[in-house]
Specification:
This protein is an alpha+beta fold. It is built from 30 helices and 15 strands. A hairpin with a 2-residue loop joins β6 and β7. α9 packs across α11, α10 crosses α11 and α14 crosses α18.
């Protein structure tokens, strides 16, 4: 039966005919989705028009208006009828009688009715006092009566809304935030409220209201489809339950899925989550734009006054990374950025945004999504480092990751992500979908970066530990296979790939063993030791276990569980422990290093050389150019106090980021007198090009002779930039490695990488009157993991108390 036939039956049979036609439309018709909602609204319009017209030929200046969802022509099976009887203030008795002739038949049929009788002035006054009324009137639609009366109200209400937008939109945003706080996020709830939860139908309606204000607009792509999907699910929920409910209860999900022709309840929830994610992301972007516009309007009059009404002020742009700047509180692409030539740009922009605690601009993400070419396999070193930096940025990682995911960039970077995206977890302990749980685990793991010697492996294992949940069978077994492939693809070497695979395969080992096995049984401890293999992997697994549990939900971790796991780790570490590593043996000096050392002795000053480091072309592009790893900086300088802080400070002044660094005393050839320190560092420009070697040398000479105030220059540069929220990194941790070397005391520093960090460490060690015999520095994402082999003035290891005091003083300086 067509909708035309249904309407004809309703017109022929009066109210009872409407009820029968409505029932047939909802149960027998082949239509569903938007066509059925529109047909039901049209059928209801015809019926109400008949009620309005009956015995009302002489009454003028009255109209019947649909508002809210009914005004939008979207009637779900159990939706309320939101009606306004609008009149010009004439015969009040006749208007009241007309209202009775309309309202009572609606009630008699058992339909929910939200009604009001007002003049245009009263409607506008009520809207000005009640935001919800105003939102409903924005969708006002004429049904019957005086069309001019309805049209004039619509025009006035829209004008009021646009004039009052600077005041009403913050009120609407607060209303949305309060509702989200009460109802939670639709995209993560196992029993979500399709209308009230964040990302639901109320938020979609709020976005329409923002667009109607002409102040800002929501991202349109995918939004209409997401809203339609949520409405379709609500229709099916109404039909299967026979009730006007918006809560998708667990016991009804299979029936709703069947009504929609879906495979099962998990498929249903995943579709709901995907739609909610689109609405939530659109809301975030839109409200951010509203805030930007309102701030701009508030500042503009003052700026105009300051500028004397002259030129329009331009937005300030502060550089964050190569091709990435901050503007108006967002991270955008620099004018010189070329996404089509820079495949690392999305990860670099994301890492910079997360580190600065700023959102990624929608325009920037979309431009990168359409222009950036795929990364080669394996990834270049910079891409891997930027991924680690992004994952290690704490809570800001979540919003930045979601921005990339909204435009499909995550699944392009990590194709295996598609199987866990928006995947529900039907477990009362879990509070997130699989994909969000993985990101939350990385956020938690970033808090433990100072506990492990390889924070990069910890963060990547956090991202991948449940990646196997998108496949049949034991997710740990499936995840191990996927983790090996992903880790190799993003550029880890074989040893690191093996560690990551072990962490994913055994990410539940510690918690399961600690809570279900007898820890006094040596066989229990030995089995864990055999599975883990090394103390380094055990250290990582301990941190991953805690991060995983904390990211699962409040019921997954407790002081009791933490105590059991810690006890197990201590027992396993005792089994795995062996002799501590000796100081690494330095390789023989190359011809170039010897040449630089001899020249340094001859000139009595520093000598340096810069050369690009590359790795072979990828397997995917064997004929391409080698991938740049950075620039190798070799420096030879006569041994003297202050070399480390001088070199590190000069590099920081020139905006060079230190990726790896080694310092050692070089044995000179026979016949050459003097002592030379050799520094072999890999550096990269924060943005822009590298400085010339001659300029670096000149500044280094001045730094060593004391004529260049490095600390002052760095402080001036930091003060010149506006303070950003940024990532709140875990506090620095400085320890003395026990018995790590017979020839020196080993001080280990784990800290958040920042410009000038190595300069500050070098100054602190100089002030402590210790000499750096050698050092081994690595930057893993945003984490610096450094080991300094130091001695006293006599060249011997520091006494225990003195070593502890130096480490404590260095830690206090880094935490200040």
């Amino acid at each position: 039966m067509t909708s035309t036939d249904v309407r004809k039956d309703a017109e022929d049979s009066g109210p009872s005919g409407y009820a029968a036609a409505r029932l047939r439309l909802l149960t027998e018709g082949a239509q569903s989705g938007p066509p059925r909602r529109a047909a039901l609204a049209e059928l209801t319009d015809d019926w109400l028009t008949g009620l309005f017209a009956a015995g009302n030929e002489a009454l003028k200046g009255v109209s019947l208006v649909a508002v809210g969802g009914y005004g939008r022509g979207e009637l779900s099976p159990r939706s309320d009828l939101d009606l306004l009887l609008l009149h010009d203030g004439g015969d009040s008795g006749a208007v009241a009688a007309l209202a009775d002739r309309i309202w009572y038949p609606v009630w008699d049929l058992g339909l929910a009715l939200d009604h009001s009788v007002r003049t245009p002035a009263e409607a506008r006054k009520t809207a000005g006092e009640d935001l919800k009324v105003q939102l409903g009137l924005l969708d006002a639609r004429h049904i019957a009566g005086d069309l001019g009366l309805t049209a004039s109200l619509r025009t006035a209400v829209l004008a009021d809304w646009r004039n009052q937008a600077p005041k009403r939109l913050p009120e609407l945003q607060e209303l949305c935030a309060e509702r989200a706080e009460r109802q939670g996020e639709l995209q993560y709830l196992l029993e979500p409220d399709l209308k009230e939860a964040r990302g639901g139908l109320r938020d979609a309606t709020a976005l329409r209201a923002v667009a109607a204000s002409w102040l800002a607009d929501a991202p349109r792509e995918g939004l209409a489809d997401a809203r339609r999907r949520l409405l379709d699910v609500r229709d099916a929920l109404h039909l299967t339950t026979g009730r006007a409910t918006d809560r998708l209860a667990l016991q009804e999900q299979d029936q709703v899925a069947a009504e929609l022709g879906l495979l099962d309840a998990d498929t249903l929830l995943r579709q709901v989550y995907e739609a909610a994610r689109v609405v939530s992301y659109a809301s975030d972007v839109t409200w951010r734009e509203v805030g930007r516009v309102l701030r701009s309007r508030a500042v503009r009059p003052r700026l105009r006054a300051m500028l004397g009404g002259g030129a329009k002020p331009t937005a300030e742009r502060s550089p964050l990374a190569e091709g990435v700047v901050e503007q108006d509180g967002e991270v955008v692409l620099a004018r010189a950025a070329r996404p089509e030539r820079d495949p690392v740009l999305p990860l670099r922009a994301a890492a910079a945004a997360a580190q600065a605690g700023l959102p990624l601009s929608l325009h920037a993400v979309r431009r990168m999504a359409t222009a950036v070419r795929p990364l080669p396999t394996p990834w270049p070193a910079e891409a891997r480092e930027q991924l680690v930096t992004l994952l290690g940025s704490g809570q800001p990682t979540v919003d930045v990751w979601e921005a990339l995911e909204a435009e499909g960039l995550i699944t392009r970077l990590l194709p295996d992500w598609e199987r866990v995206r928006c995947r529900p977890q039907r477990n009362a302990v879990h509070i997130w979908t699989v994909d969000r749980h993985l990101i939350e685990t990385a956020v938690r793991a970033s808090e433990f970066a100072r506990r492990v010697s390889r924070p990069d492996l910890l963060l990547v294992s956090a991202l991948l530990h449940d990646i196997g949940k998108g496949w049949p069978g034991d997710h740990s077994v499936a995840g191990e296979i996927i983790a090996k492939d992903v880790a190799a693809r993003i550029g880890f070497d074989r040893a690191d790939v093996a560690v990551l695979a072990t962490l994913v395969r055994h990410h539940l080992l510690l918690i399961d063993t600690a809570t279900r096995r007898d820890l006094e049984d040596p066989a229990t401890v030995r089995s864990v030791a055999e599975a883990v293999g090394t103390t380094g992997t055990l250290e990582l697994l301990h941190a991953l276990t805690e991060a995983d549990a904390l990211a699962t939900g409040p019921a997954a971790w407790s002081s009791w569980r933490a105590g059991l796991v810690t006890d197990l780790v201590k027992r396993v570490a005792a089994v795995l422990s062996g002799d501590a590593p000796e100081e690494p043996e330095a390789g023989a000096a190359t011809a170039e290093q010897e040449r630089l050392a001899i020249e340094a002795v001859a000139t009595g000053g520093p000598v340096l050389a810069l050369r690009a480091q590359t790795e072979p072309p990828s397997e995917d592009e064997p004929s391409g150019d080698p991938e740049p790893l950075g620039v190798e900086l070799l420096i030879a300088v006569p041994d003297q106090p202050g070399v480390l802080p001088a070199v590190a400070g000069v590099l920081a002044m020139h905006r060079l980021t230190v990726r790896t660094a080694e310092l050692r005393a070089l044995d000179l050839p026979d016949g050459v007198e003097g002592s030379v320190l050799l520094l072999n560092w890999r550096v990269a420009a924060e943005y822009g090009s590298l400085p010339q070697a001659a300029r670096l040398r000149a500044d280094l000479v001045r730094a060593l002779d004391g004529s260049l105030d490095i600390a002052g220059r760095l402080a001036e540069r930091e003060a010149a930039y506006p303070r950003r929220r940024g990532v709140v990194a875990p506090a620095a941790r400085v320890t003395v490695a026990p018995a790590a070397s017979r020839h020196a005391t080993v001080i280990e520093v784990r800290a958040h990488d920042a410009p000038g960090l190595l300069h500050r460490i070098g100054r602190a060690l100089d002030e402590a009157k210790v000499r750096v015999r050698s050092m081994h520095v690595s930057t893993l994402g945003s984490n610096a993991v450094d080991a300094f082999y130091v001695t006293g003035a006599e060249g011997t290891p520091l006494p225990g108390d003195e070593a502890t005091a130096v480490a404590r003083k260095l830690e206090e300086m880094l935490r200040a």
